[in-house]
Design brief:
By secondary structure, the chain is an alpha+beta fold. It is built from 4 helices and 4 strands, in the order H-E-E-H-H-E-E-H. The protein has a 4-stranded antiparallel sheet with strand order 1-2-3-4.
Length: 162
């Protein structure tokens, strides 16, 4: 239930922030937020991360639909721990947030450009969905290394003798 709740809240947050960016920013015009580390610059990304894969929007959309279905029907029933639910909810929010753009933003259905507006100078322009995907994936890696054994169960802590 945690994963589904976080997914829906995250998806709403992503879409609301994108609507706010569309309403308040002009394309390619930067607004300093926390100079020099953060600015808002509205762009429409026809590809994936860092603008790669331009022209493959339909492929990204299909992949996102498949990933969402796998998360919901294969991964979600196997969630055992709180951190699993948090990671899954963040991943679902990010995947579906960008999928909504690819499906419904101009120029056309399934060829839509992803709305990006959070700019880290010298790095990239991204959106809330991208942040959710990155944090969710990082949590999966960190949790798998630190908190789970090779079977996905909680690692047993060794008690220290005094």
């Amino acid at each position: 239930m945690l994963a589904v709740g976080l997914w829906l809240i995250g998806l709403a947050a992503d879409q609301v922030t994108k609507l706010a960016a569309l309403a308040n920013l002009e394309p390619h015009q930067s607004v300093e937020v926390l100079e020099p580390v953060l600015r808002f610059t509205l762009i429409f990304n026809p590809g994936a991360a860092f603008g790669m894969g331009e022209g493959a929007t339909v492929i990204f959309a299909i992949f996102a639909v498949i990933a969402t279905l796998v998360c919901l029907f294969v991964v979600l029933p196997r969630v055992k721990r709180v951190w699993h639910g948090i990671a899954l909810g963040l991943l679902l929010a990010g995947i579906t947030g960008n999928l909504v753009d690819r499906m419904f933003q101009p120029p056309s259905f399934l060829h839509g450009h992803v709305i990006d507006f959070i700019q880290v100078p010298g790095f990239a322009i991204l959106n809330v969905a991208d942040i959710f995907i990155t944090v969710g994936a990082g949590l999966v890696i960190l949790g798998s290394l630190l908190w789970d054994d090779e079977h996905g169960n909680a690692k047993q802590r060794k008690k220290e003798r005094v």
